[in-house]
Each structure stands twice: as structure tokens, then as C-alpha cells.
Design goal:
The structure is a single chain. The chain is an alpha/beta fold and 493 residues long. The chain contains 14 helices and 15 strands.
Amino acid sequence: MSELWRLSAAALVAGYREHAFTPVDALDACLARIDDVQPRLNAFVGDHEAARRLARAAAEASAVRWRAGAALGPLDGVPIAVKDNLHVAGLGTSWGSALLRDVVATADEVPIARLRAAGAVFVGKTNCPEFAMQGHTSNRLWGTTRNPWAPALTPGGSSGGAVAGVAAGCVPLAVATDGGGSIRRPASHCGLVGYKPSAGLVARGGGLPEIFLEYEVVGAIGRTTADVAAMMAVLAARPLAMPLRADAASKSRVASAERPTAESPMSSIEPPRARRILFVPRFADHPVDAGIAARVREGADRLARLGHEIVEHDRFELAEAVNAHWPLLSSAGLAWLFANPARWPRNGSPANAAPDAEQCSDASRAALERGRTASAAELFGAFEAIGVLRQRLDAVFAEYDFLLSPATAALPWPVEKSHPLSIDGIAVGPRGHAVFTAFANAAGLPAVALPCGDVDGLPTGFQLVGRSGADAALLALASDYEARYPWTPLAPL
């Protein structure tokens, strides 16, 4: 029983169904694993005792359902971690900021409510940088999170605590947000599956002010594609696609299903077929670590061996304008938030007074100042660039089913640094490692990071991006790839 933390969500559910062990057993194993690795990783934050008390009550209720044969679905009794910018009733939501250190959510926000209704067991909140605005995970309130594969290095960000927890075996799944690659890049740094859904697939509401607007979406992090797909179906609150064989029985089953069943969590994912994939090994002239480039090319070759048509494009500049503008959007959102105290959860500030920016990190204060000084023309330029990008990507996806690229340009870097200072021997700025991901957020496209090998003992991954609404097809392709080329999902911590 002590080794249950090693199992995937699907394997845990299979054990529950066979009465080999219970959700309480699984929770105990995961909590013991957290106790073991937390001092080395600092993945979890907040009131641990409150989280454990609520988790145990949820696990006990799930065990009763499984004994009665009344399980709620493929996540019933599964331990799940929650990024600390999503409200879970009864737990704190600090957003990585001392300004919100005393905030305790009184209700779940919509995605969390859906997971709770599916029987998920929330084991705790995971660390993120302040306001989830950085590509590494460190803040003044909770400290720095470390990579389970190499604790001297960062797991990336902003979902660094989430990926550290999943890769270390603390939980099989984590729910997180992605506003420019915050799921996909950390997943790549930790050898995990990271999924960003199409815009609008997962409803928001009842949470923190959305300073990233609709560009930030709620997605899933896991060790297997099947687990991630099961979570995404619950978050979407509907099956993702009709089965390929639409006989009368399958039509009836899908039409009547509100969520995937515990017996067939992948039944809503359409089987893959041969696809036409645009392979973009680099964006414009941005450097990519040579080891990452080699592993991603191997991934493209593997997809070709699976029968997909790979078309390589050695010059891709569509994302350049959006990448140049991207930090401005969240900075403007932060400035708006500081100018509207009524939008803040309870934060200890005087009534109708702006929160004290001096309590924030240097990076947050710099972003706030950038947002405050931005002109209307600059903001218009950012939105115009997004509009142009969407039009041009429509033409790309009229010709190709998916786009393949690295998920990140750099391997994990030392935790003391906010970003790598150079990549492949070339000096880069704060977002030099992040050039491949924000365009999918800007265009509202589904994207997944998949492991594709290691570089000097560190995992890395590639990114697949689909047209808007192609979530089921993207998950099917990822599942097909994993079935043929499985990976090692747990860090040797």
C-alpha cells in the first residue's frame, strides 16, 4: 500500500474497482510521499493540515461510493493537486503573493467544482510565482520550488509546484492554468504530459480576477495521456468527441453520458488517423538548446513512423509580433487590478485603498510599472498582432492538422535565476526560453507537451498544437504516440 503513489490515476481507479485498495489507502500513500519530498522540493504551499483534513473526508466519501458500486467516474477518489491561483473551498489562495496570504476561499471556482463533483480528492495547493507571471517558481511568501529531476534546477513556471508534485509521485494529476505556456513548459522540464485546451472548452468563474483575460485557460498535468484526457473530459463537462464507430449502441452511450464512466475513461477520445503535421524546429532566429533540438527531431521521426506526414518548415515567423507584445498584456492586467481594489479578494488593505505594491517582488513591481505606463496605442498594437496571428494560423491549419515544435527552448536552469541567460551559446532575454508557447494562447488553440527523451539526464518534450476545437483529435494523437513510445514518468528522487 505504501507504493500506491507510483500508480497512475487510471491504475488507482482500476484498483478501487477491484477492491484491491481504497481511496483512503491511495491518499495515505500520497501524503506520505509528500512528507518525504516536500522538504527537498517545496512543491506544496498553504495550510497543509486543513488540506489534509478536507482530503481525508473526500477520500472516505469516495471509498463509500466504490464499495456501493456508485463511483462518479474516472477521477473518483484520485488524489489531485491544485495550483495556488485556483479557489478550493476551505483552502487558501495566495496567488504566490503576500498580499493574499490571509485569503481563504469560501467556494470552489467552476473548474474545481467540476472536479469535486467527479469525486476528485484535493490533497493541497501547489506553489506558483507571484500572480503566476514568471517562467520559474519562486516567491517571497512560500519560497522556491525545485525540479525533482535535479533539485538545484527550476521546474519552470508558472505551474512549477504542480509539475514538481506530479513528477515526484505526490499525486498522479494536477490542475493548473496556462496563460502563455505555464503548463506546457514546466511539464517539458519534468518529463510530463501538459495540456492546454482550446479557449472556451473549460469554463471559468468564481475565481481570482483574470488579469490574463481569456488567454489563460485551465488545463491538466499528468504522467500519462490517458489520465490527462480523463481530467480534461471532466473539466470540459462533456465528452470530447464521438467514437469513430458510430453504431447505434455507441451513439446511445455517448448521447446519454454526462461524463466518461469509471469503466471507460477514454471512450470519448476519437481514435487517431494519419495526420499532416507541420514541423517547425525553431521560431525565427531564436536559439534552441542543441540537445532539445535533437530530441524533438527524434519525436518528429517517430510520428512519421506512426504513419503521419511530417512537413518541415525551417522558417516560422508568425509568432514574432505576439511574442514581442505578450508580456505587456499581463502587465496591463496587473495595473488594472491594482487600480481596482474592489476586485481583490480580502487582502488586509483599507477599504477602497490600493494594495501595497512594496510587498510584491521586484519582478511584479516592474510588471506593474510597465502596465501603468503602457499607452493605448501599445495595447491596440498587441491586440492587432493577435488578430493578424489568428488569420495567418487559419491558413496554416487549412493545410495542416497539427503543428509540431519544441515545448521550450532551454533545459531547466539554476533555481537562483529567473531565466536562462543564454541558450546554445547565445545570450537571451527573460522570455528567450518561452518563444514556442504563447502563440497558442493568443490564438485560443489546443496544445500539448509530450516527453520525448532526455538531455544529459534531464527530460524534455515537444509541443503539438491543433486548430481550435480539435482537442479530442490532439489527445488521440498524443495517446497513440505514448502507446508506441512510452516514457519514464517518475523522477528518480
